[in-house]
Amino acid sequence: xxxxxxxxxxxxxxxxxxxxxxxxxxxxxxxxxxxxxxxxxxxxxxxxxxxxxxxxxxxxxxxxxxxxxxxxxxxxxxxxxxxxxxxxxxxxxxxxxxxxxxxxxxxxxxxxxxxxxxxxxxxxxxxxxxxxxxxxxxxxxxxxxxxxxxxxxxxxxxxxxxxxxxxxxxxxxxxxxxxxxxxxxxxxxxxxxxxxxxxxxxxxxxxxxxxxxxxxxxxxxxxxxxxxxxxxxxxxxxxxxxxxxxxxxxxxxxxxxxxxxxxxxxxxxxxxxxxxxxxxxxxxxxxxxxxxxxxxxxxxxxxxxxxxxxxxxxxxxxxxxxxxxxxxxxxxxxxxxxxxxxxxxxxxxxxxxxxxxxxxxxxxxxxxxxxxxxxxxxxxxxxxxxxxxxxxxxxxxxxxxxxxxxxxxxxxxxxxxxxxxxxxxxxxxxxxxxxxxxxxxxxxxxxxxxxxxxxxxxxxxxxxxxxxxxxxxxxxxxxxxxxxxxxxxxxxxxxxxxxxxxxxxxxxxxxxxxxxxxxxxxx
Amino acid sequence: xxxxxxxxxxxxxxxxxxxxxxxxxxxxxxxxxxxxxxxxxxxxxxxxxxxxxxxxxxxxxxxxxxxxxxxxxxxxxxxxxxxxxxxxxxxxxxxxxxxxxxxxxxxxxxxxxxxxxxxxxxxxxxxxxxxxxxxxxxxxxxxxxxxxxxxxxxxxxxxxxxxxxxxxxxxxxxxxxxxxxxxxxxxxxxxxxxxxxxxxxxxxxxxxxxxxxxxxxxxxxxxxxxxxxxxxxxxxxxxxxxxxxxxxxxxxxxxxxxxxxxxxxxxxxxxxxxxxxxxxxxxxxxxxxxxxxxxxxxxxxxxxxxxxxxxxxxxxxxxxxxxxxxxxxxxxxxxxxxxxxxxxxxxxxxxxxxxxxxxxxxxxxxxxxxxxxxxxxxxxxxxxxxxxxxxxxxxxxxxxxxxxxxxxxxxxxxxxxxxxxxxxxxxxxxxxxxxxxxxxxxxxxxxxxxxxxxxxxxxxxxxxxxxxxxxxxxxxxxxxxxxxxxxxxxxxxxxxxxxxxxxxxxxxxxxxxxxxxxxxxxx
Lengths: 523, 523
What we know:
Strand order of the largest sheet of chain A: 1-8-5-6-4-7-2
Structural class of chain A: alpha/beta
Largest interface: A-B, 96 and 94 residues
Shape of chain A: globular
Oligomer: homodimer
Distance between the termini of chain A: 94 Å
Number of strands of chain A: 20
Radius of gyration of chain A: 27 Å
Strand content of chain A: 15-25%
Helix content of chain A: 25-40%
């Protein structure tokens, strides 16, 4: 080995440069049939000339343009026969977003630098962002320029109480601007939101029926379940179609004054949905994010008067009254800046409301209350009446206190709310009635005693293990309430499932967690 | 529609419960050949009984056990023919980690709740964590219990200066404990780390040759490139094998006093690698994370005296001297708690060091300096000598200042360092010499002037677009340094690439970014 062994550097050549972005025709794109979750994924073979020419590596972000459409996707490299070197595969969400058409050509490139990430870094460093900062961040998120990791960093930087009040307002406004905005011809449009965390508690369909039977306008958009056993839209779907176009929703409201539709297809505050999915995955949120989330949806929906149900309880989302008051203060102040009237109602969050947990079982509860059946769960009826009364008060449609309660009660007792609900269901596409799951299995008390506590979170988990909301008739029926005396061997709740496997799996969880319903020894 | 239309609830049945976790035999597992990046992915058909019975949805985290091995993977649901309903597919990393064997059975379940995430949430809320908190967090990360999103939340919560000094020490110690730890029979083991950010600057192989020729023990482990055009391990691999087992590394050090090996196969501070990959993806880091990252690797490697090269310059990682001093202070204090002597050397970070950027081109520079060729880049030679002198001083093997510099210079001039380097390469498996890339193309100045600034980051980008480090001979040769007078049409740098496509792509970037090298008009 001596110094001669270093080869001489060859002479430079001046060659013709041919810069061409890699292209693929439509028939080289493959729909992989893989649901990759919230992030678009592109699959390229490791020998793909696209990877080589663009210098993409595993996990690179790739911009794909086709026609006027542009998506950003994360690269997964493929070896073997899954894909040919001259093909590109797309995940389900990427395929839907890019919507390739025959005759078109896909172009692949590095995405532009996302400048607004410097603002996220500033927020991480504790700076207070301005209104225009949130606007550019939210626009980039809406355009799916943020990776999931970058979104997680933004959500984390805004978590806890890291947002000042004016930042909450700025974030809310930016989120409203990121999506569609509905305008109604009515001077007053009422709405309702529940902060959540309680199993059951399906007051919305009843509430809409009551207040619209009394002349209020309430075009309610609701979500499907994300981590819970049922969303309002899932439950309502057991009774009528909810997947309405904006036009169909408008016609329904014109005919009946109200609706209970799924909000997903209307595209209100789409960034909110993306942030919620990260917040739930991380189980972190903050007051500021919650307020921006709730209000951006309501403002975008064109609501003028919004009642917010805040269940307070040890296993609810809001755990004590100090937290509830702080949240209510922030909600009303930020809403005021947008000209929206908000009232927060603190409700008992110590136990589920109603008996059913799961779309079909909750729908049975809703029907029983509306139909005035003697078997109807009285707590759900009472909760719906008090929320309706609060909304009537907020809207000025009734006086204070007793008169509003009387109006709401009368609407239920007279059958007016039930007729109104049937009219809404017909306008949404036709009323239907849910059946019952194939299998039921009771969980019985092992000793006599008094019901001391009910764990909302674990109860919801049982309903989900039984199959809710994907199996819409699955879930559970709760037979006891706090303070009830229970005999030994008495059914505490009954699990409903469509398959024996799911039933067994839910019951196994129940047996591993004996404190879902806690009994105090009888005196 | 009347109240009779609500079907009666059927009677509860008491059925036999058969709880069985879903299982799949070895021959139902498919290696998908998909590189999903840092997170394991499991692919299940949407009709899979595993999804149904366990209630998994898209993006669920799934625990898979096989033999004594257990991995956590993110679920991607598949429709169509990619996978059968009774099969489970695994991404490349998941397949390697689970290492399925014939005769074994895979069991699928929900992963246990990761309790340490509550500590991450406490950190987000601004709390100071204790030593045992970091230990449990880092252990869970090492066990891959954290999703990428959760890791991003932890990294974000620790970013900027959110870690107190004692927390940096606690995180460092926890990271050391998370992996292998090497112990050497020598009282003094020297090491070197560069904070990075400069193109080229491949001093390590030269430094190791100099100081081990003077009797120091320097078992150097280096990384491969993550986002740069070359890591030290990539460059050294052009000259000798670097993928050494710990045993091979020990034998090399025993024979020669030193080595330059790839650290990846030895498993030092594995959590550091996972956190670095998130930090780079987010382009966020903080002093505390940087210190824990550097020191955990050095402590785990058994080093006692560590020289840290801190290039300071506007486009280097550390941008000014205040930042450099704060970093040096944190590094020396935390290292002291672990009994490790650290010295930080602030170096000129205003321009690349050496001419080559890219594994093969940097290796040519290294060889030229070691062989004392007249063509050797003098800045690289000087930088290596001053680092070697600082390390000799730190170790006590030389007096202060001039004497240490003279010893290092003499080791190079006498050929001792070159002979020592050849011995190390032979011990690592045999010396070799890199060739040259197939295509070279010069970027010429469009006017005469004086070199005013060189953008390290963009220069690195050009080398990567040309194919480095995957094409190890690709990259660029820089022909000018700050202050040089340049004539019109004189080559500023030459891009080297193995394909004309990559060459064209890099040159296109160069033409779009004319400020990579800025010239002041000649006076």
